[in-house]
Amino acid sequence: MRYHLHGKHLVLGVCGGIAAYKSVELLRHLVKEEAVVRVVMTDNAAHFVGPITFEALSHTPVCRNLFAISDEAAVQHIHWAQEAEAVVIAPATANIIGKLAGGIADDALSTFMLAVTCPVLICPAMNTHMYESKAVQRNLTLLKSYGYTILDPGAGELACGTTGPGRLPDPAIIFDALVDLLTPKDLEGRKVLITAGPTREAIDPVRFITNPSSGKMGYAVARAAAMRGAQVTLISGPTALAPPLNVCVLPVTSAAEMAAAVLGQMDGHDIIIKTAAVADFRPAAVSDLKIKKEQAQLSIALERTQDILKAVGERKKNQILVGFAAETHDLDAFATGKLKAKNLDIIVGNLIGPSDAGFCADTNRATLYFSNDTREQVDLMTKADLAHLLLDRIVGLAN
Ligand code: CTP
User: Fold this and answer.
1) 203-247: per-residue pLDDT in tens?
2) Can you tell me which atom of ligand 1 is nearest the CA of 322?
3) Nearest 5°: phi and psi at 166?
4) Most exposed residue of 47, 124, 271, 357, measured as fewest CB within 10 angstroms of its CB?
5) 307 lines ligand 1 (CB under 6 A)
6) How far apart are CA 181 and CA 86, in angstroms?
7) pLDDT value of residue 333
8) How is domain 191-398 classified at the architecture level of CATH?
């Protein structure tokens, strides 16, 4: 089941860098998930964001200067190190990275870090040349050898005007990396192939047939599987979603492209999950030129696309195959019919209609149908939770 941050003791370390403002957003996100977050910041960090901001959001005094506080408070901060279930340092400057690599303890954050025994996520952010310098790279290698997890910085234009790696990733990515750090890896060693989103079937160079699939369910499954240690390939139709952390995304547009990608990839995967809303029909002929509105009426002849899931079901060997069924009525009959016709192990059925389930919604209300003729009715839950529940059932089948 999904790793929930509710009640977890976390420590956010903040260093002095332009990107310190992003750690405010990260803190908000963590507090929203009901984690108990304490903030340790360097003096330089306070030049960029005031401690009061972190105090207001975390509802706890910030630890900033071990030498200016009472003995009792100093001991309390050792308690923080012992209680912490994870520590994230974002942004991590070259200075703190060097101090942690060398075991130096000369301020609140570096001293605190020496007492930490839980998983640690380091998020470097600095000028590209600094980041690529031999000293910083050597120190990061040392930190990895100590068991710290390093979140690679993003590349792009930096505040200092240079372009290249060094940018602190968005708070949502740091959040995911932190949850990833804490999630048990029960899919370690498994290769999972997932499809998501709609397909587009061209009518002419400026028009196509599609459906309202947002891709949210498939991306949630990909994100969850990657967090649980699987090697994930996500074949995605056009969506507005960011690629999930540690997922290899193969973009496709049409049903034919999706079919070629899935059938080309399937042999290397243990688990195949098809959430994509594939178009069942495409225009029989695609006009090379834009169709003009000369006639009063227009008919477009459609032909069937390949049923990708059915083709995978016919070829699968010792692989777990999961499909999705979106129906407006008779869910039980249609879903179980597809389960058998496509040789699936599980089909996730959901009724399209309620605004809290199906296309575009962040939540889903589903029934899982299994090949042994059992079924499981699932309450309304987020697509992230449904993704983890589905993976729980898959892990159950795989073991
Ligand atoms: N699917 C597929 N290829 C298609 C159509 C559907 O792989 N050309 C897969 C979907 O990814 C989903 C499952 O089949 O996992 C069921 O899709 P759905 O649209 O609900 O059903 P269809 O099989 O297309 O049947 P119908 O449209 O008649 O309901």
Assistant:
1) 999 999 999 999 999 999 999 999 999 999 999 999 999 999 999
2) 15
3) 150, -10
4) 47
5) yes
6) 8
7) 97
8) 3-Layer(aba) Sandwich (3.40)
Q: Is the pLDDT of residue 312 over 60?
A: yes
Tokens standing for residue 248: 């290899």
Strand-pair partners of 36: 9
Classify burial at 211, counting beta carbons within 10 Å of its beta carbon; exposed 0-12, middle 13-18, buried 19 or more.
middle
> Tokens at residue 258, please?
């999706």
| Domain 9-182: CATH superfamily, name plus number | Flavin prenyltransferase-like (3.40.50.1950)
Sign of the four-CA dihedral 263, 268, 272, 277? negative
Residue type for 117, please?
T
User: Which of 198-202, 284-288, 351-355, 364-368 is predicted least confidently?
Assistant: 351-355
Q: Is 360 marked active-site?
A: no
How close is the Cα of 372 to the center of ligand 1, in Å?
Answer: 21
DSSP 168: P
191-398 and 9-182 share a CATH fold = yes
Q: What is the pLDDT of residues 105-154, one digit of tens each?
A: 999 999 999 999 999 999 999 999 999 999 999 999 999 999 999 999 99
Catalytic residue among 15, 118, 123, 160: 160
Separation of 225 CA from ligand 1 center, angstroms?
Answer: 22
Cβ pair 59, 30 in contact under 8 A: no
Residue with tokens 């279930």, as numbered in its chain: 85
What is the reported pLDDT for 74?
62
Measure CA of the first residue to CA of the last residue in the chain; give whole Å. 16
273 beta partners: 194, 322
Against a cut of 0.85, is the pTM above it?
yes
Name which residue sits closest to atom 24 of ligand 1, judged by CA.
280
pLDDT at site 295:
85
Within 10 A of 138 (CB to CB), how many other CB atoms are there?
13
List the chain domain ranges: 9-182, 191-398
User: Which residue's CA is the nearest one to ligand 1's atom 4?
Assistant: 307
In the reported structure, the alpha carbon of residue 278 is separated from the centroid of ligand 1 by a whole-number distance in angstroms of 6
Using only C-alpha atoms, what is the Rg of the chain? 25
